[in-house]
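>> Question from a student workshop board

For tomorrow's exercise we were told to take the sequence and the ligand below, predict the bound structure, and bring the output to class. My setup keeps failing. Could a helper post the expected result so I can at least see what it should look like? The ligand is (2R)-2,3-dihydroxypropanoic acid.
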Amino acid sequence: MAKPSVYVSRLLVAPVMAAIRERFHLTLEPDIAPPSRETLAQGLRNAQAIITTLTEQIDETLLRGAPRLQVIANHAVGHNNIDLQAAKARGVIVTNTPDVLTDATADLTWALLLAAARRVTEGHRLVQTGAWTGWEPTQLLGAEVSGQTLGVIGMGRIGQAVARRAVGFGMTVLYASHKSVPSPDPTKPWQQVTLETLLRQADFISLHVPLTADTRHLIGEQAFSLMRPTAILLNTSRGPVVDEAALVAALNAARLAGAGLDVYEDEPLLHQGLLALPQVVTLPHLGSATLGTRVRMGQLCVENVQAVLDGRPVLNRVI
Ligand code: DGY
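>> Workshop helper replied:
Here is what the output should look like for this input. Compare the format with yours to find the bug.
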């Protein structure tokens, strides 16, 4: 029997590519780099399914050119790169990869928190450039972490995982979210507060909301005006949740102390102002970047595609 035709928009990790090649016929060979729009359209033309990543914008025009398409399996938990309405209108199922990347993303959020608080990248540069002349009592003084207040905006799976890690640092956890979420440890309750209260009181503000029309530029000039001048902002969600120009202006005006960023408004471009600020730690969208996590994400995509093509219930259906 012929294998189903699937388009994979980018080269995924080797064990996942092996599983894909075993089960499916690839409409095009994927590349490590993002496909051009023409290549995307070509790959989709005869595909029954696409396994795509967050760098591909799957919109109405592309879907119109994909008459056989039954499922879009997004290799990410976020799905702002897909026009859900257009997919729904054409009866195309959309799936994502929740749960399997929660810990990796929460861990990376903490890497950013600690790096920004304790000036890890500045210290690294000092040593690496040979500019370090020895221990100094006033050198690279950072922010306290233990015992401080963590503010989590968006208390979904990743927000909760970030909050759970704060227990080890004896931190108070505030969160702003549509739903209330109890702390797993009743002796260390998480306090649900308004966004304004969180912005006013938190020492570390960590973003874990999906990108929607409501959350675009959620953190902008107004939010920065409420933050403590000692606050540190962390973003491992989606870049456009933060108004980058407003962030640069706020940092330059010392409205907040620093930032740890994994995501940007216009990836892979960054606001030039961010590059000039030593108190900003920048990573290249690495939230889910561990081999185990990427294998699990890929496996979920394969399972989701197979389920749709077999007419079975789908594990991670978005619509
Ligand atoms: C996601 O899953 O949304 C991540 O950003 C991908 O690494």
